[in-house]
Amino acid sequence: MLYLRTPKRCFFFGDCSAKKNPKLLLSYIFSLYDYFLKELYRFEDTDNPNKSAIPLVINTSGWVKGTGLHMLTEMLKYASPTHVIRLRTSVEGKNLPAGMFWLDEPEGDPAINLVEIRAAQHSPRHLLVKKEARIIRDLRIIAYFRQCLPMEFPVFSYNDLIQGFASIEPFQLPLSKLQVIDLHSQVKSLDLSTFSTLL
């Protein structure tokens, strides 16, 4: 089971595709990278336990064409990575362009270590495991909400998660403890009793 760490900083984008607002998504990515450099990463300051000397790993979601490829190019230009690992598939149309495609110089940059891992040749289609975005999103949701349940409670599927939440006693707040406040004035007690009858 996946367990997610509480993020130091995150942004809510609200969509699983970058097509609707790529500029906003890029600004979020750049802001996260800047935060990492400023607050977390200090290679020269290795004695400080709050500053990390470990590398930042960026998973690019397999964007190989269209808006995704443009965004990947912008991300690589902005982050200026020292190492790029490209995983290739046997379907040529699902691979990134050859070489250091994000650089303006066609010969590339000798300071960048480009590692290419080729796909196994002629694998039968039924042996290739297709990781669908929907399944990965489901796993992340289960992992996130899993934190609300006791560790000994087994969660392997959505049904287990639902059973776990159904077994938790809900938080109760007496109606007498509720107070409704208007921005400009206090709500009259008569109006509050009318409100409570609607509940």
TrEMBL record:
It comes from the Eukaryota. One of its GO terms (cellular component) is nucleus. Residues 9-146 form the Clp1 P-loop domain. Keywords: ATP-binding, Kinase, Nucleotide-binding, Transferase. GO terms for molecular function: ATP binding; polynucleotide 5'-hydroxyl-kinase activity. The keyword Transmembrane does not apply. The keyword Heme does not apply. GO terms for biological process: cleavage in ITS2 between 5.8S rRNA and LSU-rRNA of tricistronic rRNA transcript (SSU-rRNA, 5.8S rRNA, LSU-rRNA). PANTHER family: CLEAVAGE/POLYADENYLATION FACTOR IA SUBUNIT CLP1P (PTHR12755), POLYNUCLEOTIDE 5'-HYDROXYL-KINASE NOL9 (PTHR12755:SF3). Belongs to the Clp1 family. NOL9/GRC3 subfamily. This is Clp1 P-loop domain-containing protein. It comes from Oryza sativa subsp. indica.
